Amino acid sequence: MIPYGKQTIEQIDVDTVISALQSDYLTQGPKIKEFEEKFAEYVGSKYAVAVSNGTAALHLCTLALGVKEGDKVITTPITFAASANCIRYCGGEVVFSDINPSTLLLDIEKVRILLENSPKGSYKGIIPVDFGGRVVDLQPFRKLADEFNLWIIEDACHAPGGYSVDESNNKIASGSCKYSELAIFSFHPVKHFTSGEGGMITTNHFDLYQNLLKLRSHGITKNEDEFSNSIEFACGQTSTSNNYPAWYMEMQTLGFNYRLTDFQAALGLSQLERANIWIQRRREIALYYSNSFKDLPFIRGQSGTIEGHAYHLYIIEVEDRLGLYNYLRENGILAQIHYIPCHLMPYYKQFGWKEGDMPISENYYKHCISLPIFPSLTNDEQTFIINCVKKYYGK
Predict the structure, then answer these.
(1) Contacts of 387 (CB under 8 A, 6+ apart)
(2) For labeling, which of 113, 139, 179, 259 is most exposed (least CB within 10 Å)?
(3) In the chain, where are the structural domains located?
């Protein structure tokens, strides 16, 4: 069976995890900080905060930015549900906006129409998604956000190592936060590299960074500079010392246990060393698919390779998607569908969303199918997949 995505675990990863397991720390150890620093360097941000998964990363971002009941936040319907759910976790209102049919990303012109047709202050933020590995050009979104006093969270789960190109022809790495307040990543096994489960938040704002550190660990801080209670209270008696005792900590806000373990961080560090090699392999696979399918009238949505694309997914759009999906499975190819439009999930339909609200997203969903793409996919396996697709359509 050939899955649509698959982790690559090598002996060096196994040895690294064993070493971490044999150390003095299983959780909250030195590997977490090392992973954060190396990842921040990889994407070009000032700070990074490791968390238990990508969903936790999104939730902590909305908390850190103060999303509360009734706040309206804009996102795309073509994404995994967590991109929208994080708004609901805080009591906010999810406002979906349609995609650009050429990029499959949140359409900035449609977002602008939403904002211009509402009183200023109606919306609090935007969560664009680097869908499939294609990185959102955030520079124009930044200008739009500044015009309407909005924050931006970049959902970069599909695009570590990817980049966009701004109007000055600079490569803007996903998660670098040059044009966003925060960005988030997932290290689920089907992603570019893995820590088992796991996620990361990046930012260039020190205050957000400090807040995130507390929020991921029950709202607790051990930083003396942030303590509210007196030294005497902390000691439990009158003290002549100017220092808080070593055991003391304070819970200053309502947080969560969203921490990553040390051995997961060790695996993430090991995998990060090969991230650039693996993303290059994904681009090679994407190019082979694109060259094989070019000029075929029954396939839409891909041509050549796209600069900066991280190719988490390779998506084609076809007629009789269900028939192709079933045929591929009969031949041991586990293609997948990304995604059912979020606004048509029963949970979101209760808020009034219905078919016809996002026509481009809905039309895309009727035709999309993700073909296998992962670094260990062999040329023979890929040729077999391509031939199966062509055979189904009589080519």
Answers:
(1) none
(2) 113
(3) 2-219+254-272, 220-251, 275-392
The count of other CB atoms within 10 Å of the CB of residue 169 is 6
* Placement of tokens 């949140």 in the chain: 106
The reply to whether omega before 339 is within 30° of 0 (cis) is yes
Residue 357 C-alpha from the chain's centroid: 25
Beta carbons within 10 angstroms of residue 100's beta carbon: 14
Cβ of 213: how many Cβ atoms within 10 Å? 18
Long-range interactions of 33-39: CB distance < 8 A, separation 24+: 34/265, 34/269, 35/195, 35/260, 35/265, 35/266, 35/268, 35/269, 35/272, 36/200, 38/269, 38/272, 39/185, 39/200, 39/202, 39/268, 39/272
pLDDT beneath 50, residues of the chain: none
> 343: which DSSP letter?
G
As a whole number of angstroms, the distance between CA 90 and CA 125 comes to: 13
Structure tokens at 50: 């490791």
Supply the DSSP symbol for 342: G
pTM for the model: 0.97
Say how far apart CA 232 and CA 127 lie, in whole Å. Answer: 45
The predicted structure's pLDDT at residue 256? 98
In whole angstroms, what is the distance from residue 135 CA to residue 389 CA? 27
What's residue 240's pLDDT?
74
Q: Which of 300, 270, 276 is nearest to 366 (CA)?
A: 300
Domain 275-392: CATH superfamily is Aspartate Aminotransferase, domain 1 (3.90.1150.10)
pLDDT of residue 301: 67
pLDDT at 349: 98
Task: Measure the CA angle with vertex 355, ends 352 and 360; round to 5°.
Answer: 120
